[in-house]
Design a protein that fits this description.
Blueprint: H1 2-23, E1 28-29, H2 44-57, E2 58-63, H3 66-79, E3 82-86, H4 94-100, H5 107-115, H6 117-129, E4 159-162, E5 167-172, E6 175-184, H7 190-201, E7 205-208, H8 210-244, H9 253-271, E8 274-275, H10 276-282, H11 286-299, H12 314-329, H13 337-359, H14 361-365, H15 374-388, H16 395-412, H17 427-440, E9 447-452, H18 456-469, E10 475-477, H19 486-499, H20 503-510, H21 516-527, H22 534-537, E11 550-552, E12 555-561, H23 566-575, E13 579-582, H24 583-617, H25 619-642, H26 649-669, H27 676-695, H28 703-729
Parallel strand pairs: 1-8
Antiparallel strand pairs: 2-6, 2-7, 3-6, 4-5, 5-6, 9-12, 9-13, 10-12, 11-12
């Protein structure tokens, strides 16, 4: 009856968790840049957030074939992936264009009106009778042909408006490319976006978007996580079977499944979204979740399993769970979303694995006998003899080795972080993005400036002109290229108002047969146009795609093309109350700060672990445990440095995680209720399953995940080695 009740409770819990995960399956985040978004320098966050918003929602479409371009547009619309597809002026509101015609006037034309308005009016008067002049607005709405001089007709450096085809085009390498940009809907389907990209890629169509990188990253991460977990599970199964030689031992898979399901569901519940790297990294917990069961079965080798025997190991299990989970718990205090997600995932996965092992596995494995293969005894005896050579190692000598290796790591280690290592990208996609940037006349290096202060558009215009004249940049993209600032708009309006009584201006039109009063009315219409602020401009349908340039009324973002002297630009911008930002460098610095933060948190975790161990095992033994864990960490880092791997945030996180596992092994090594053979067997079998699951990550396409798996796998093996030595040092 009790057995049936426990099975029913856990089955119901598991079914509920699976149903919840099914509902949350689309909420997997793949934005690598969001992982360090709380570690930017002051002032950078708002700028980078605006940039990331553009990357995550905007899709650029280019084609050098008009028919194929139109086919692509049709497929964009049919896909239902986008809230808007912008590619022709006809799709814009004439009324909105009319309201913006003065605010979006080109600077050159604006200065001409202010400095030589008679010349401007003479030219505009000819436009009225020019039948071959195609204008965005009819004469009835735009008597002075202001819209023909609108900056909207050249939104990017290479993008122009083709009046005849009503298309935005770019000229590049002697070819005409048709241009469109689309805005993705919220909660769009990643698989549909990938299918659309792959379908159009073969049709002389270029598509570029940060969202496509994210979609491929999600797809790659999910497949990697799946096949790595399966292979790790199979290999762990082989190791476990060799150790216990009973097909029923494969029921330990249920521990892994229940633990991972619990961890993932908890992470979704806490954060709403889970990053794909959190899933890939946390899926390597398979070996750790098997530790409880393996240590318990080690106690029951060569005899029928007594279901109640697990109760005698409850205290040592809870202590190990507390120490291991504590290694993750401290990361809840980190500013990084990634570290927090992995902490929650790991805490609940380990808790789920422990609860399932303690309450369910004894009912499944009770009264069954487990025996290791005969050669395992031979291997254990040989291994134990080898360990005796190190069992008398002096702690002082170990500390000296620690200091020497630590010094070598500091001298020769590469501690720089590189954001490019934290995600994997298809090479064709990268090349397409570079080509799109060249066609649009934009820089693909993502170096930009945050302009701050009153009259921000005027300040932006003056600063960028200075940088261009000084040869520090080739060009820029920003709001001031599209929108006149409000004081300049007001000056233009006043100039039109003055012209109402300017006979020289009126005579230009009366000579052409226009009624004086009607011309005056047209001049008044322009003078009565409302001035458009940047905040109002980016809310309009026409200029909404420029919203990433606008931060607030005193802050705008500009993209710098072909930066020549970063130090000089930084000096000039800083002197004018603004900020220069190298996007990739800022992200790398953010991850480096995160790394330092993680190290300090882990030091805190080690101190807490030492305090707990001191209470249970005394000062000398606890110190010995911690020394063995630390030397394992240093040896792992030394090997990574020796073979040319950098010490990035993922390496640091890897050795931190392994440190928590190592303390767990030291605790089991100090469990004098088990024989030396049982302890060495349990520790090393658990280490093998854990190392296998982590070392599988070494084959990931993402460099950061690969080195993370390697760092944890090596460290766990070293920890198991020193835990075995500790076992021999504590025979009695």
């Amino acid at each position: 009856m009790k057995k049936t009740l426990i099975f029913s409770i856990f089955s119901l819990i598991f079914a509920s968790l699976v149903f919840y995960l099914f509902l949350e399956r689309k909420n997997i985040d793949t934005d690598i840049y969001s992982l360090a978004n709380t570690n930017y320098e002051k002032g950078e966050k708002e700028a980078i957030d605006a940039l990331l918003k553009r990357f995550s929602s905007e899709v650029i479409l280019l084609s050098n074939n008009q028919a194929k371009f139109q086919t692509a547009i049709d497929e964009f619309k049919k896909s239902e992936l986008f809230s808007d597809v912008f590619y022709e002026i006809n799709s814009l509101s004439l009324d909105e264009l009319n309201k913006l015609k003065l605010a979006t006037l080109e600077h050159k034309t604006a200065l001409e009106i202010l400095q030589n308005k008679e010349q401007f009016f003479k030219q505009s008067s000819r436009e009225i009778f020019n039948k071959f002049s195609i204008k965005p607005l009819p004469t009835s709405l735009d008597f002075f042909s202001l819209s023909k001089h609108s900056s909207l007709l050249a939104q990017a450096q290479n993008i122009k408006f083709d009046y005849q085809k009503h298309r935005f085009i770019a000229s590049f390498d002697g070819e005409i490319w048709y241009f469109a940009k689309a805005e993705l809907r919220q909660n769009y389907d990643n698989s549909k976006l990938i299918n659309l990209y792959q379908n159009l890629q073969s049709k002389s169509v270029l598509i570029s978007s940060g969202a496509i990188y994210a979609a491929f990253g999600k797809q790659s991460g999910q497949s990697e996580s799946l096949y790595m977990s399966i292979i790790a599970l199979v290999l762990c199964g082989v190791v476990v079977w060799v150790g216990f030689r009973n097909w029923r031992v494969f029921y330990v898979v249920l521990v892994v499944v229940f633990g991972l399901t619990t961890g993932l569901a908890a992470t979704f519940a806490v954060f709403g979204k889970v990053h794909i790297l959190s899933i890939v990294v946390s899926s390597s917990l398979i070996g750790l979740m098997l530790d409880f069961c393996i240590h318990w079965l080690s106690k029951n080798l060569n005899q029928k399993v007594d279901a109640t025997s697990i109760k005698s190991m409850r205290k040592i299990f809870l202590l190990g769970l507390f120490i291991t989970a504590g290694g993750y718990f401290v990361f809840l205090f980190a500013s990084s979303v990634l570290l927090k997600q992995i902490a929650i995932f790991s805490l609940f996965a380990l808790l789920g694995a422990f609860v399932f092992t303690y309450f369910v596995m004894p009912l499944i494995l009770a009264n069954h006998e487990f025996k290791a293969l005969k050669f395992v005894d031979v291997v254990l005896e040989t291994y134990a003899k080898f360990l005796t050579k190190f069992s008398s190692l002096n702690l002082g000598f170990i500390c000296v080795i620690f200091a020497v290796l630590f010094g070598l790591i500091l001298c020769f280690g590469n501690f720089k972080d590189n954001i490019k290592e934290y995600s994997s990208s298809d090479e064709k996609l990268v090349q397409t993005s570079i080509k799109v940037a060249k066609i649009l006349g934009e820089s693909s290096s993502y170096k930009f400036a945050l302009i701050r202060g009153e009259g921000v558009l005027s300040k932006e215009q003056n600063l960028t002109n200075y940088l261009k004249i000084d040869g520090l940049i080739d060009d820029y993209s920003g709001l001031s290229k599209i929108l006149l600032d409000e004081p300049l708009q007001t000056k233009l309006k006043n100039e039109f108002k003055k012209s109402v009584s300017d006979n020289a201006v009126l005579e230009i039109y009366t000579k052409l047969g226009f009624d004086k009063t009607s011309v005056q009315n047209e001049l008044l219409k322009v003078s009565n146009l409302a001035t458009i602020s940047p905040k109002e401009a980016v809310k309009s349908e026409i200029l909404s795609s420029l919203s990433h340039f606008y931060i607030d009324e005193n802050k705008t973002l500009i993209f710098l093309n072909n930066v020549k002297n970063e130090a000089k630009i930084d000096e000039i911008l800083h002197a004018n109350g603004s900020l220069y930002i190298d996007f990739a460098n800022s992200l790398n610095q953010a991850f480096s700060k995160l790394k330092i933060e993680a190290i300090w948190l882990k030091i805190l975790a080690f101190l807490l672990a030492f305090a707990v161990l001191w209470k249970f095992f005394g000062l000398r033994r606890s110190f010995e445990m911690m020394v063995f864990v630390l030397i394992s960490t240093i040896l792992s880092l030394f090997l990574l440095v020796l073979f040319g791997f950098g010490i990035n945030i993922f390496v640091i996180f890897g050795v931190i995680l392994a440190g928590a596992v190592g303390i767990d092994y030291m605790i089991f090594a100090s469990n004098l209720a088990l024989s030396v053979k049982e302890r060495i067997f349990g520790i090393n079998l658990a280490a093998l399953t854990s190392a296998i699951s982590f070392l599988m990550l070494f084959f990931s396409k993402t460099a950061a995940v690969s080195v993370f798996g390697l760092s944890v796998g090596l460290n766990i093996l070293f920890c198991a080695f020193f835990a075995s030595i500790l076992t021999l040092r504590q025979k009695s």
